């Protein structure tokens, strides 16, 4: 099918360009300076160009040019003033001849700023929001300063004001205008302060408010904090549950956060005894991001399950944990450049270097503790286990720890009472470098000092000091050896040098105080112990020494005050309690003295001094029946001393129980047949009670008194013989010996002398005793009324030698 094709009519080329040939609008500007016609026109055309006009749209009228403030016409033909040039200073007045003032300086100063309306709702909300932020900041600052109660109060006040703020915003605006960040910070701070004050229930409730609010995008992470609270409450199952919930809500991009949560999960598993689950957590951590705590906890888990091989592998993993610290080689100048040396000195002890040291010290502590834990169990003996640990440590960058492990091996021998092996192990370090040699020699000196081998202790103390003159432990041991030899002045010098090297060496400071006490420099000794008390606030030894010094200085009030502090540290120490009782007794406060003596007796009922005081106290207060209990215990402790049994009998007699008193005297007489006091009481009791045994006891009393006279004569003759032998030589010695033999024969012939006890009636009864805790000062005694044969029995008092006041 054919299509109709419309062809354009042919056009001639001349017809196309005929218009262009007729008019050419382009103008040649290349030679205007030489164009005479153009230059003439330019000179004569100024001021004669007609004004440019434009037609107003829709009309035939022309639009005049704007001059100054003119009038412009809108599309509807309405004229309006042209004000667009006001800002540039063009005014209608300027066209009338006034000066040009574009800055408006002629108008005077600007009007004052409009005051804010403090009564407006928006302003009140802004001020309240500012106050809430200030309260949150104050709460955090108080917490950092340790004032937890104030921090909690500020947090609660911030919460109250924040709730008021929310209500006000809801009244004047929509809910979208609520400041969620402020609400989150207030609730989070309040929960933290509750937890810091151990108000765990309130803290959990506050965290729940945050977690359940879907408007807080990252609130789910706070389940970690909730898990921490449950861990503190020992609710380990819930702690693990919340840790896992938090772990699910933290993306894998936050690797460090996930590792820390997994570490908490592992610790919670250890607390519950689920060691295999804990091992899984810590193994994952060590494979992803190894750290010291996870490695050490992994060793603990394998130790708990008893897996020796895995303990070794975990120990190797712990040593391989990167510390990311620079070692000491970095701080050694490679040349003598002063600028480099100055730079190295500046960074040698800066804050970053201190952090590196702390991290390295922590790593060494973990490795040492782990080695001491696994060494006794990973091999057949602890020595072999220590050797394996030493070899592994030597192969790492902790080479210095190998020597410390060897010294710890010697310490373990000491704990096992194997002194020979300990000495041999320590002697191996004599050829090591100076630091290790000094440490080993210090321990050797201490060992020999304990064994009272002062010569060897002195030798090794000298070796330790010569190897490292700045080792405070070596100087302290050297001072101890000098102190043991009695040279207190020199010992004090060594202790002072140790303190100059290390002012925190408490052993040297304590020994220096003891040395000053020996030198009778009491004030200086007190100063040492007071300084030590500032370092060791709850040291019982330091508190006792301070109290003792005040007692030496005859300041009983201060001594009592320090002893009261001491019993707050050791409330069951019977010696301290009896010391307090003695001081109160000397001060005349019998009630307080009785309280502390009785407490001392309750904790240690074998102190004779305490028993004697309590018995005498009840005698003074006319409670003889209660005194019997204490004197019977004293007689049980010292059965060979007649004094306590006589006191028991005297208490029965004073209380009116004559029958028991008679029986007790008879028991005493059977044990001590030569005791004159016992026989005298028996004679009087039997006489007053009308018993037939009176004659028997009178006969025995006479024989004992006669024996007493004979012994006194023998003692007198023995003294005379000694004086005569000094005057005459050995000649009189034989005759004295013969006379002594005759006296011995007479003593054997007397009846009733076959008992092995020496008569206590032959001389004044000795009321002294041997204190098992050491010699004690005697209590002051008052003279008792002298007994005579004519005294009435009922009024008779116990003698000074039998019952101390």
TrEMBL record:
Compartment(s) of residence: Cell projection, Cilium, Flagellum; Cytoplasm, Cytoskeleton, Cilium basal body; Cytoplasm, Cytoskeleton, Microtubule organizing center, Centrosome, Centriole
Example of a GO biological process term: kidney development
GO CC annotations on file? centriole; centrosome; ciliary basal body; ciliary base; ciliary tip; cytosol; intraciliary transport particle B; motile cilium
Q: Where is this region: Disordered?
A: 1-24, 41-60, 101-121, 714-805
Compositionally biased tracts (Acidic residues):
790-805
Pinpoint the residue ranges of every TPR repeat in the record. 220-253, 259-292, 472-505, 506-539, 574-607, 608-641
Task: Recite the UniProt keywords alphabetically.
Answer: Cell projection, Cilium, Cilium biogenesis/degradation, Cytoplasm, Cytoskeleton, Flagellum, Repeat, TPR repeat
* Gene3D superfamilies, per database record: Tetratricopeptide repeat domain
What top-level branch of life does the organism fall under?
Eukaryota
Which GO-annotated molecular functions does the record name? kinesin binding
PANTHER family according to UniProt? INTRAFLAGELLAR TRANSPORT PROTEIN 88 HOMOLOG
Main role? Positively regulates primary cilium biogenesis. Also involved in autophagy since it is required for trafficking of ATG16L and the expansion of the autophagic compartment.
Protein's name according to its UniProt entry = Intraflagellar transport protein 88 homolog
Q: Which organism is it from?
A: Buteo japonicus
């Amino acid at each position: 099918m054919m299509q109709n094709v419309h062809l354009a009519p042919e056009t001639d080329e001349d017809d196309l360009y005929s218009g262009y040939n007729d008019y050419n609008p382009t103008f040649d500007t290349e030679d205007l300076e030489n164009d005479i016609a153009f230059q003439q026109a330019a000179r004569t055309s100024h001021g004669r160009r007609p004004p440019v006009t434009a037609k107003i749209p829709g009309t035939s009228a022309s639009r005049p040019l704007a001059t100054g403030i003119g009038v412009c016409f809108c599309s509807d033909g309405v004229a309006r003033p042209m004000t667009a040039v006001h800002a540039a200073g063009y005014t209608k007045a300027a066209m009338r001849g006034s000066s040009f003032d574009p800055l408006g300086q002629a108008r005077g100063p600007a009007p004052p700023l409009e005051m804010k309306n403090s009564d407006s709702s928006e302003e009140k909300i802004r001020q309240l929001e500012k106050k809430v932020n200030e309260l949150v900041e104050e709460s955090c600052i108080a917490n950092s300063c340790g004032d937890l109660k104030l921090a909690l109060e500020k947090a609660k006040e911030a919460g109250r004001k924040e709730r008021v703020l929310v209500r006000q915003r809801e009244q004047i605006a929509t809910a979208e205008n609520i400041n969620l960040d402020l609400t989150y910070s207030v609730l989070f701070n309040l929960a933290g302060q509750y937890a810091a004050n151990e108000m765990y229930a309130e803290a959990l409730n506050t965290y729940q408010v945050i977690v359940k609010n879907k408007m807080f995008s990252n609130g789910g992470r706070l389940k970690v904090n909730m898990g921490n609270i449950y861990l503190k409450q020992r609710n380990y199952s819930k702690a693990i549950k919340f840790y896992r919930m938090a772990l699910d809500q933290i993306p894998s991009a936050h690797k460090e956060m996930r590792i820390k949560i997994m570490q908490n999960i592992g610790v919670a598993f250890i607390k519950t005894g689920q060691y295999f689950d804990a091992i899984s957590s810590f193994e994952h951590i060590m494979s992803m991001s190894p750290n010291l705590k996870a490695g050490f906890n992994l060793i603990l888990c394998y130790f708990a399950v008893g897996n020796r091989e895995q303990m070794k592998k975990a120990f190797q993993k712990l040593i391989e944990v990167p510390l990311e610290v620079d070692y000491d080689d970095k701080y050694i100048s490679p040349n003598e450049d002063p600028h480099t040396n100055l730079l190295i000195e500046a960074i040698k002890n800066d804050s970053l270097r201190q952090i590196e040291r702390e991290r390295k010290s922590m790593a060494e502590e973990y490795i040492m503790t782990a080695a001491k834990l696994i060494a006794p169990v990973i091999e057949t003996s602890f020595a072999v286990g220590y050797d394996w640990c030493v070899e592994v440590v030597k192969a790492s960058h902790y080479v210095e720890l190998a020597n410390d492990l060897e010294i710890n091996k010697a310490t373990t021998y000491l704990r096992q009472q194997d002194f020979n092996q300990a000495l041999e192990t320590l002697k191996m370090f004599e050829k090591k470098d100076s630091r290790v040699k000094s440490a080993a020699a210090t321990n050797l000196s201490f060992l020999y000092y304990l064994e009272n081998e002062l010569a060897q202790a002195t030798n090794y103390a000298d070796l330790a000091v010569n190897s490292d003159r700045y080792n405070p432990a070596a100087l302290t041991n050297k001072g101890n050896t000098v102190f043991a030899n009695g040279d207190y002045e020199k010992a004090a010098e060594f202790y002072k040098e140790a303190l100059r090297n290390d002012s925190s060496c408490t052993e040297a400071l304590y020994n220096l105080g003891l040395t000053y006490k020996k030198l009778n420099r009491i004030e200086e000794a007190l100063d040492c112990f007071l300084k030590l008390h500032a370092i060791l606030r709850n040291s019982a030894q330091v508190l006792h020494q301070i109290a003792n010094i005040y007692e030496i200085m005859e300041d009983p009030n201060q001594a009592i005050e320090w002893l009261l502090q001491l019993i707050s540290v050791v409330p069951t120490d019977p010696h301290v309690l009896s010391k307090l009782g003695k001081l109160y007794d000397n001060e005349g406060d019998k009630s307080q003295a009785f309280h502390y003596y009785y407490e001392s007796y309750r904790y240690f009922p074998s102190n004779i001094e305490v028993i004697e005081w309590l018995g005498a106290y009840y005698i003074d207060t006319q409670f003889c029946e209660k005194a019997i209990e204490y004197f019977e215990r004293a007689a049980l402790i010292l059965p060979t001393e007649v004094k306590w049994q006589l006191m028991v009998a005297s208490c029965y007699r004073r209380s009116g129980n004559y029958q028991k008193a008679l029986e007790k005297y008879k028991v005493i007489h059977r044990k001590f047949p030569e005791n004159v006091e016992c026989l005298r009481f028996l004679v009087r009791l039997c006489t007053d009670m009308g018993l037939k045994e009176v004659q028997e006891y009178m006969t025995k009393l006479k024989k004992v008194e006669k024996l007493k006279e004979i012994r006194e004569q023998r003692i007198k003759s023995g003294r005379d013989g000694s004086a005569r032998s000094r005057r005459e030589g050995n000649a009189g010695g034989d005759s004295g010996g013969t006379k002594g033999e005759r006296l011995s024969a007479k003593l054997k012939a007397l009846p009733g002398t076959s008992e092995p006890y020496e008569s206590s009636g032959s001389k004044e009864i000795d009321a002294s005793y041997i204190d098992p805790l050491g010699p004690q000062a005697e209590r002051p005694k008052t003279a008792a009324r002298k007994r005579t044969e004519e005294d009435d029995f009922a009024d008779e008092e116990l003698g000074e030698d039998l019952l101390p006041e």
